Automatic annotation (TrEMBL):
GO CC annotations, alphabetized: nucleus; replication fork; site of double-strand break
The name this protein goes by in its record: DNA polymerase eta
Keywords: DNA damage, DNA repair, Metal-binding, Nucleus, Transferase, Zinc, Zinc-finger
Compositionally biased tracts (Gly residues): 606-615
Biased composition (Acidic residues): 589-605
Organism, scientific name: Gonapodya prolifera (strain JEL478) (Monoblepharis prolifera)
Region (Disordered): 188-261, 521-544, 557-621, 664-724
Annotated Polar residues bias: 220-232
Source superkingdom: Eukaryota
Matches recorded under Gene3D superfamilies: 3.30.70.270, 3.40.1170.60, 5' to 3' exonuclease, C-terminal subdomain, DNA polymerase, Y-family, little finger domain
A Pfam family it matches: POLH-Rev1_HhH
């Protein structure tokens, strides 16, 4: 039988992985270019109010950067006599139930609410294309994801081995690998630029360029990012090639290679096959949706993420195992995910280092003494390109939030009703989409408001699906909750949010409109409200610890001052999340989706650009960036809390520590004879023992009682005495 002729997976391939990171090129701009059918040579900027949240590559060639103002970008375009198009993000206007694209002159933050829904919907279609090739997908944000193509590549290798198509498989050096030119290889030598051949001419056979199996000199890393301080072998974007073609032109991916390179080894062979699949995926995204994307291919997630940004736009880069050491030696260590923010600053301050290779001189024991056992081990490995993070399907977010920073502030009840109407319309649309896709329904509704006198959240049970329900229902209930506050304390209101939490239900299809019928019943749809839950959050302490101990700070430092979810439990059964849930299912998701540490100019939307479902929920930058260049808060999708940007580092570091602790517990023996991490030190939200017992072996953490204040996890609980 045909199946019997398929050779088994070679032993040399067992235990190594082929990971691909795919990142859309200037995603928000591409969505708007496709919608408006704009020429891709045209400079396009996506604006929110008077600030730019996305800039395409022709605009970057003019010197325009994300977060610039519209007037500054217009001036740069005029100086170079270049045409430019500004497109405002979709907004909800008063009385609208769907986000629409309004003329920027008619959009005002005083009357409109930003919506990122068009980008969430485009993202969903892109990941549906990914899913045609593999089920091993981790959505990192709205415009990027990780794909584990190990099984796909190994299966194809086995088939070609059985067919005798792989040369040198029996030789000690390993199989001969011939690389196609749609991939750029990170090398210890300058790489030739790949230029698509002229289809009207008869090209000679492409020359074969051998690739040295081992590095002989520091690698030259390719980069086109304006803000990148990596050494570059490629000229700027406008000197490499023309911008990506018009959305309706043929595929931009060249089929005929212009030059070829060869190497040897089973690991290289696996990456070569993964690169071919990555090219197929990128081509499929273009053919079906007309988006270009870049990709990085390597043996782990961290390296593939770094590679995807080296040769943007519309290219893919491969980092082979034999060049990882040289690659990491010259890499600025702040380019590594999790080391670009506060943690990276602490490492730089403690050790006076700039490049990843500078950290190699510090022994593992020294790093663990400074940063704790787990963080020290992670840091020791990551700067050498070693990472064992798996590609995991992220948990779907259990909450949706719509928030608005109010300028001018709300000063009367009619203005409250106006803004609750816009927030409710946005949540209604998202609930429709989620019910159709996932068959889920929320358990709780929460409103939060911030005034000079209040920083408060109130929650209420969400109406069941069988009840008549419209966006008006949310408005009525929100107003009822608001009226229970002291009238003198709710004005002026500077920030308002509405959230639904506890989304649950079996996967299925259906039309939510059968539940969301017309709300002509008025007050009868609202019913009698049970007593709401009120949560008043304590204010942040006036001062924070300095130095490294800022990571090991008190609970109020590591958690936000205000929680939009009140004291509502996130689990479906009403209990607090367990340490395993926090450590494995969600902390990994937050780690992948956070944008603060990333320096890739191609990220759209800054820290507010998330995924919509899985990863960090895409909270509208309207709530995060009330004015250009000013980011006040962000919403953590893991815990649904609104976090001041000044506290974001501690908050994301806490989630990162949860993941590290969970991975540590899964290993029975640590390298170097280190003891296992303490299972009692997990970052559960449940009631904890006293500080002296938090890190004890085998310690149990009882669940907190209903209504009990939610405690805070800090990094100190994870790294024990090693952080002293």
């Amino acid at each position: 039988m045909e199946k019997d002729r398929v050779a088994p997976i070679p032993p040399a391939l067992k235990g190594i992985r082929a990971i691909v990171h795919i990142d859309l090129d200037a995603f928000y701009c591409q969505v708007e270019q496709n919608r408006l059918e704009l020429d891709s040579n045209l400079a396009v900027c996506v604006q929110q109010w008077q600030g730019l949240i996305a800039v395409n590559y022709p605009a970057r060639a003019l010197g325009i950067k994300r977060h610039a103002t519209v007037s500054d970008a217009l001036q740069l375009a005029r100086e170079k006599n270049a045409p430019i198009r500004f497109v405002h993000v979709a907004t909800y206007a008063p009385g609208e139930t769907e986000p629409k694209h309004h003329e920027s002159e008619r959009v005002s933050s005083a009357t409109h609410k930003v919506s990122l829904e068009p980008y969430r919907r485009a993202s969903k279609k892109i990941f549906q294309v990914f899913a045609k090739f593999t089920s091993h997908i981790q959505k990192a944000s709205v415009d990027e994801g990780y794909l584990d193509l190990t099984e796909n590549a190994n299966r194809l290798i086995a088939e070609d081995l059985a067919a005798g198509k792989i040369d040198g498989a029996e030789e000690e050096e390993g199989p001969i690998v011939e690389w196609d030119d749609f991939s750029i290889l990170v090398s210890n030598k300058p790489q030739p630029l790949v230029t698509p051949p002229n289809p009207s001419s008869d090209s000679e056979p492409s020359p074969v360029t051998p690739v040295d199996p081992l590095p002989a000199q520091p690698s030259a890393l390719a980069s086109t990012s304006e803000s990148s301080d990596l050494p570059t072998t490629n000229p700027p974007y406008d000197e490499i090639s023309s911008p990506p073609p018009h959305p309706r032109t043929p595929s931009p991916y060249p089929e005929a290679p212009n030059t070829r390179t060869v190497s040897r080894g089973w690991g290289d062979l696996q990456l070569c096959y993964a690169a071919k699949i990555a090219k197929q995926i990128r081509t499929a995204v273009w053919d079906e949706l007309h988006y270009t994307c870049s990709a990085g291919i390597s043996h782990n997630k961290m390296l593939s993420k770094l590679c995807s940004g080296l040769n943007k736009p519309n290219k893919q880069t491969v980092l082979r195992e034999t060049l990882v050491t040289q690659f990491m030696r010259e890499l600025p260590f702040t380019k590594i995910r999790m080391l670009g923010g506060k943690l990276g600053h602490e490492v730089e301050e403690q050790l006076s280092v700039e490049k990843a290779g500078d950290l190699w001189k510090f022994p593992l024991a020294h790093l663990q003494k400074l940063f704790g056992v787990q963080m020290g081990l992670w840091l020791h490995d990551i700067v050498r390109g070693v990472s064992t993070e798996e590609v995991k399907e992220v948990t779907k977010t259990k909450s949706f939030m719509s928030a608005k920073s109010l300028r001018p502030p709300v000063k009367d009840m009619s203005e409250y009703r106006h803004w609750f109407g816009i927030l409710a319309a946005e949540l209604y649309v998202r609930l429709q989409d989620d019910w159709e896709d996932n068959g889920r329904w929320p358990k709780t509704m929460v409103i939060s408001l911030r005034t000079p006198h209040l920083d408060k959240s109130r929650s209420h049970p969400f109406p069941p699906r069988s009840n008549t329900f419209t966006a008006d229902t949310l408005v009525h209930r929100a107003m009822d909750l608001l009226k229970q506050e002291d009238h003198n304390k709710i004005f002026p209101c500077f920030r308002l949010s509405m959230q639904v939490t506890g989304l649950q239900g079996e996967k299925g299809t259906g039309d939510i409109t059968k539940w969301m019928k017309s709300a002509e019943q008025g007050d009868s749809a609202r019913g009698v409200l049970p007593a709401p839950t009120t949560v008043v959050r304590p204010s942040l302490p006036p001062a924070k610890p300095k130095g490294l101990m800022a990571f090991f700070s008190s609970a109020t430092d590591a958690r936000p001052a205000m929680s939009p979810s009140g004291d509502v439990d996130r689990n479906d059964d009403g209990t607090a999340p367990s340490d395993t849930e926090a450590g494995s299912a969600v902390a990994e998701e937050i780690l992948e989706s956070m944008r603060e540490d990333e320096t890739d100019d191609d990220d759209d939307g800054g820290s507010g650009a998330g995924t919509g479902e899985g990863g960090s929920d895409a909270v509208d930058v309207d709530a995060l960036i009330p004015e250009p260049r000013s980011v006040s808060t962000y919403v953590c999708d893991n815990c649904g809390e609104t976090v001041p940007e000044t506290s974001r580092g501690e908050h994301t570091d806490w989630h990162f520590a949860v993941r590290l602790s969970h991975e540590e517990r899964k290993s029975s023996v640590l390298r170097g004879g280190l003891s296992q991490s303490s299972p009692g030190a997990m970052g559960t939200r449940g009631k904890r023992k006293s500080l002296g017992n938090r890190g004890t072996q085998g310690g149990t953490i009882p669940k907190r009682a209903k209504g009990e204040e939610r405690p805070t996890g800090t990094l100190k609980q994870f790294f024990g005495t090693g952080a002293k």
